[in-house]
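Quick start: what a row looks like.
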Amino acid sequence: MTQKIAYLTIDDGPTEDMKEKINFLDSKGIKAIWFCQGRELEKFPDQAIYAIKKGHIIGSHSYDHPNFSEIDLEEAKNQIEKTDKIIDDLYSQAGISRPIKVFRFPFLNNGSKDEYQETDWNNEHVKAIQKILADLGYKQPKFENINYKWFKKAGFDKCLNVDCSYDSFDWCLEEGEEMFGYYDLPTVLARIDEDVTEGGRGLNNPSSNEIIMMHAWIPIDAFKALINKILDKNIKFQLSRL
């Protein structure tokens, strides 16, 4: 049986302890795509440069994390372009050619006012934002064998932005952010053992690989615990082909 592959993506970086998290990932042989906010890159440029030099990918998560369904196209373009230039400069400072331009929307909201997974990709606002990404050279990496019906039906395999097939719900570790019964580390870890293949909880399903979403700001102990629990399932983390 083919080993299940997970592509690790981490939002909202960089953070003060990003180097420590990168060192932990490297000790496990894991490289990640870090979707970073422009304003945080301005605060912690050294953390991002360290990631670049260690072979991780810095992607864009907008400049200051707005909901793209609530901003006009001019602001959407500014959010993407401003952060794009910051990332270009960081790669230049690192002395490394930027290998790919990748983008994840804040809140996974691609400009649509529809429910998650129900995007009308022909909506003018949504199409215009996709064009902005295309004009700037953004694309999806080659995430292989993401086979969930819900993922493909939602169009997440064909858009230019990167979505996820497994949301770790680690953001529920923030006080007051409980959702669906996830509210602390034990409940977030227990989610990994759930088996709802077409409900975004398919880590135990060998028929599909995964794009996993975590967050850079969670405590280091929780970060390590989540990674270790996934590794315990004999899932191999791999950087996607660019």
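That is the whole record. The chain has a mean pLDDT of 97. The chain has one domain: 5-237.
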